[in-house]
Amino acid sequence: MTSTQQPRLTSLDGGADHVSRSRVEDLDRILAGSLSVGEQQAAVLPVSIVIPTWNEAENIGHVLRAMPAVEQLVIVDADSDDGTADVVRETHPEATILLQKPSGKGNATRAGLEVASAEFVICMDADGSMDPGEIPAFVALLQQGFDMVKGSRGAVGGGSTDFTPLRRAGNRSLVMAYNALFGTRLTDITFGYIGFRRDILPQLGLYATGFEIEVQMVAHSALAGLRFAELPSTEADRISGESHLSTWGDGKRVLATIVKSRFQPGREWWRHRGAVRPVYDVLPTQVEALEAALALAATPEAGAVERRGAAVRLPRQRVAPTDARL
Questions:
Q1: Per-residue CA distances from 78 to 63, 98, 135 (Å)
Q2: CATH number of the domain at 8-323, please?
Q3: Domain Glycosyltransferase 2-like, which positions (predicted)?
Q4: Is the pTM of this model over 0.85?
Q5: How many CA atoms lie within 13 A of 322 on its CB side?
């Protein structure tokens, strides 16, 4: 997706927004006083990008060519037979390529995390549904002090061009269940565009084997009392091929992971957990949400911010009905 395109974005609640995805205009405002987006993209960002792949030869090249310069790229390939690894080598010769055994997105992600070496880590998909142009925004928030930053299609300014009615209903139901159990106000828990500080990995205690690893990251970060931020993000249609996601099968595994994480942790990290706290409410626009997050990190004792333990919560603002989320 180019920066000049303005796709019709469908939110988790079925609303629609015409949102400009001009990263340069928006993020130059956000990062004023630090690095401009152009400077960040020209510099090498201190981040390891972890991407699981399985027969993504027609997609992965597009993703890698759109990626800013990063310290490390880790591709975990599930023994693809379409030449995915060859495309990676041609497009990004310095990439670390791992052969995944056993299969499963969770297994692949955890294998990639084991070799990640940069200060920050971002997990993303290989199919082109996640915009690599958002990586500097993830890094900026992590550099400002957040432990984990998650892309959200449900936050104002985010959205999806790939939601079917069934996927939208399923996502909204899972978000509602998660928020009810964890006392949070998140807008999206199943989008796998997630960044975090590498040194928090021991606190996450990840063990999921499939797509549910994404919600496990979020749930375990909440129970560990980590500083968490949502970043409005856009999900595009995959460039080519069919999704490996099973709406019903993976949806049930995600729900089971939510319940197990809340009531049956049974892991060492549980003994170090913080209280389950609200994170923060969505703000009216993408720019305001990013500005508020960065301003919070820079001035954590600002009067508009309510600090509760290690987590933070920004006050809800009124938005137009067409912009309301969840």
A1: 18, 9, 24
A2: 3.90.550.10
A3: 48-203
A4: no
A5: 5
Where in the chain are the domains? 8-323
- 160: β partners: 10, 235
What's the pLDDT tens digit per position in 172-204?
A: 898 999 998 888 889 999 899 999 999 999 999
216-235 pLDDT, tens digit each: 999 999 888 889 999 999 89
pLDDT < 70 positions in the chain: 1-42, 241-250, 264-326
Work out the number of other CB atoms within 10 angstroms of the CB of residue 242.
Answer: 8
Cα–Cα distance for residue pair 40/38, rounded to 1 Å: 5
CA nearest to 135, candidates 212, 64, 222, 52: 64
Q: What is the rounded CA–CA span in Å between residue 257 and residue 243?
A: 21
Closest CA to 140 of 298, 315, 283: 298
User: Mutual orientation of helices 23-30 and 286-298 as an angle, nearest 10°?
Assistant: 30
Under 8 Å between Cβ of 142 and 197: yes
Dist. CA 234–CA 154, nearest whole Å = 9
CA nearest to 24, candidates 8, 36, 12, 11: 36
